[in-house]
Amino acid sequence: MSRNEWRELNRKSPALEELSDLLRAADIHPRAGRPDNFRSLGSVRRKVADIASQHPSYSGKPTRGGSHDKPVLLEFIANTSQMQAEAASIREGLRSNGRMLPIELDVDHGVLEADEGQELFVQHLRRD
Known about the structure:
This protein is 41% helix and 0% strand. By secondary structure, the chain is mainly alpha-helical. Helix 3 (69-78) packs across helix 4 (80-97). The model has no long low-confidence stretch (mean pLDDT 81).
């Protein structure tokens, strides 16, 4: 979106189609039980519009969107080059192996703990 000047993507945008295809092909969510419209052009376009409407320069009425839309957008604005690099890494991971992060995992089967109310990063290991 930063490359689209923080505007929503046109329904016929190649970038929208590419993103929808990438998300549909990703091995993030189980394929069994996915509805036909899973990560469709319309749903991806709506999410892009939700994020665009949270931008500080947006002059219309913001959509409701999700609770993470604005914080992620503001982080992206504050650290654009770093966030673009992370987004490129995620896209590459999805293209190459269908996973979000193209990294090797050193799995420690210990217990993860956090104080109540703190955020906890959890990563699942799935074996095929």
